[in-house]
Amino acid sequence: MNTNTRKQERGDHGPLLLGQVLADALVTVVRQPQAAQELRQADAREGRPAVCRLCGEAAYWHRTVRGKWLLVQPGERPCHLVPVGKRRRIAGDGTAVNLGAAMPADTCRVSHFDVCTARRAGAATGPPATGCG
To answer: What's the rounded Cα separation, in Å, for the pair 15 and 8?
Structure first.
């Protein structure tokens, strides 16, 4: 052992070995991208927080499979309470996937646009629908 190693073992704050510094730096560099990737995946699943401008409720923006943005209600609901075609699942990358007619046995997410109280109230008091008939 040389004097640099002995000083480090005793707790002195003397010179460090270049090999030890490089090894510590390598461990730090390798761990940071893994931690950042895990953080990005966790954030993607959560979505971007938002507040509905009509009713003031909290919700989360998620991208759909077709690349559009969808405001999704927080929390999950039992699938048997959500109409077919309105059931969503948030994929690992944060994409809101429409489950269509698939009947998962557990829970799903719903679009805020489908349950917004201000939208439903506005639809009931809005102008009469015009049609051909």
So the answer is: 8
